[in-house]
Amino acid sequence: MNGESALELRNAAKRWRGSAALDGVDLAVRAGTVVGLVGPSGAGKTTAIRVGLGLLAPDGGEARVLGGPAREIARHSGRVGLVLDGPALERGLTVAENLELHALRHGRALPDPRPFLERLQLLALAGRRTGRLSQGEAHRVAMARALLLGPDLLVLDEPVAHLDPALVHAGLELLREAALERGAAVLLSSHQLAELERAVTHLVLLHRGRVLLAGDLKALLGAAPPAVRIAARPLATARAALERHAAVARVETMRLDGVELLRAELRGDAAASVNAALHAAGAAVSLLAPERPSLEELFRRTLARAGAGGAA
Amino acid sequence: MSFVAPMRAELYRLTRSRAGRFGLVAPALLGALQVLGGDLLGRAEAARRAAQGFAAAGSGAAPAFGPLADGVGGLGAMALAMIALLAGAFSLARERDLGSLPLLVLARPRGAVVVGKALGTCAYVVTAFVALFAASFLAAAIGRDFTGVVEDGFEMASAGELWNETLLAVGAGMPALLCCACFGVLVSALCSSVGAAAVGAVVPFTLLALFQSTLGRVADHLFVTYAPFFSPRAPFARLGQVARAFSDAHWAQGELLRAALVPSLEAVAFVLLAWLVTARRDA
């Protein structure tokens, strides 16, 4: 499996009632990687996943799964773990019975589910009917089910949306382990960018059915221009000084925890000269901190460059 | 044999949930209650006649075949036909409602999923029928024996003949029950929600069953004619008279064969149509 694409979209196109849901999308999920699929609502993330898994026929381009056409995905029974459209559990069955049903559907013997149930804090709920679980518990069961048969490809659409922070970490850790220790290919779609950043190795940013950004996450974050956050009084004086400074590419005002700050993108390592310029302009600087490049920031800036807002 | 896994999964799902277990037990309870209720009414009628000074209608207990036929072909069988329809109707539509259909089509080809669902539902219906038969048998055996019908010292039908007629009627009547399940699966393939599937299966079936007697010869080619519902032509419905060896009760030539063949062929057609529909729809 190593090096091969477990899931691949080549120039995939899909139209819904005349408008393009996917427009020439290229996407590859290789073994041993965790690919984060992000984008504003309506960007085409779920459509890309459905086309990629052969659940929707593309209007153009090609979709391949585990080396074969996506439409023939059933040939790889048990090698694809999926969380799509919510937990999709049988409400009349218990957690353990839902897992057994999953194994039966794939014609497999039920492997020991306890390691997954334990990691996701579900062991005590194994005998409870899933209709009586909370949303978060049901989503954890769905994640355990996706991991149960040791799949080569894991595709999860919003798997951690309803989990509390401690369990988000446990869930994402399981997915990372599946990829990095077992060599599975993982495609993860989520709006929770801070959590996603900890789990993914690669990123694909979709917007209006097109890929705006794709590649290794570290490389993408490393390519971001250095930036500093500045708290200074008076803010207008500081901003004017920054806008005059040759090493400052862009200045914006932002609010963090109720405090108004300035964010300056720099051309190179110019923090010291920016600090000096602020003092020279008569601004009292109380904070000047380098900004760690984050996925959230990358997302925001990329969409802004593309002329699009929208919440992640 | 890629349909075996979805078939086993469907049977597992149906027999593990509370609603599924209720569907297994309810026809059996109804069948047994009908036998015991009929028994009570018979005793009340005999007591009334005795109080009025009339002699008892018959000497000794009647054979158990008649009450067994009442249990197997009465309310229990009607309930089972409805349960078969609904179990079929929920099979695919429920997966769509839950969002688990993608999980199924990732596991097996769509055709195998449809065939597996239909066979799993049929296996469930057969299991429920076995329970209905067993419950009716036990209820009928209380205070009676499975003996032949004797009138005025003349044996109208031996116990062997009556077992033979009963099993023939059961064999000829089962395909109609299974066809109800397959009709439900077809409706399920066409519908996006459980509610629409339930209405889509029950309403047309009930209308056809209610009006099949007005359809003349056309009715011979409809599976509802042979389903134990409102039809007096269903083998289950006619079994009561045959099992009591009524002088005018007998199977017409080809009747049982038609009752077995028409629903069987239509069941296959329904499953094939459901396969075609599911193959063309997005999951």
Describe the structure.
- The complex is a heterodimer of chains A (312) and B (283).
- Chain A is an alpha/beta fold and 312 residues long.
- Chain A has helices at residues 45-52, 95-105, 114-119, 135-148, 165-180, 193-199, 217-222, 235-244, 271-280, 295-305, and strands at 5-16, 19-30, 34-38, 60-65, 68-69, 80-83, 153-157, 185-189, 202-207, 210-216, 227-233, 248-256, 259-266, 284-290.
- Chain A has ten helices and 14 strands.
- In chain A, β9 and β10 (210-216) form a beta hairpin.
- With 283 residues, chain B is mostly helical.
- Chain B has one domain (4-280).
- Chain B contains ten helices and two strands; from the N terminus they run ααααααββαααα.
- Chain B has helices at residues 4-16, 18-51, 65-73, 75-98, 101-107, 110-141, 159-190, 194-211, 235-243, 255-280; strands at residues 149-151, 154-157.
- The mean pLDDT of chain B is 91.
- Can you tell me the CATH superfamily of the largest domain in chain A? P-loop containing nucleotide triphosphate hydrolases
| Largest interface, C-beta closer than 8 angstroms, per-chain residues | A-B, 28 and 28 residues
Apparent shape of chain B: elongated
* Sheet with most strands: strand arrangement of chain A: 6-7-8-3-9-10
Mean pLDDT of chain A: 91
Largest sheet features of chain A: 6 strands, mixed
Low-confidence spans of chain A = none
Number of structural units classed as domains of chain B = 1
Rounded to an integer, what's the Rg of chain B over CA atoms?
21 Å
**Proportion of beta-strand residues of chain A:** 25-35%
- In terms of quaternary structure, what is this? heterodimer
Q: How many β-strand runs of chain B? A: 2
Query: Which fold name is given in CATH as the topology of the largest domain in chain A?
Result: Rossmann fold
Q: Indicate the mean pLDDT of chain B.
A: 91
Major sheet: arrangement of strands of chain B: 1-2
Count of alpha and pi helical runs of chain B: 10
By CATH, the architecture of the largest domain in chain A is named 3-Layer(aba) Sandwich
The proportion of strand residues of chain B reads: under 5%
Provide the structure class of chain B: mainly alpha
Element order of chain B: H for helix, E for strand: HHHHHHEEHHHH
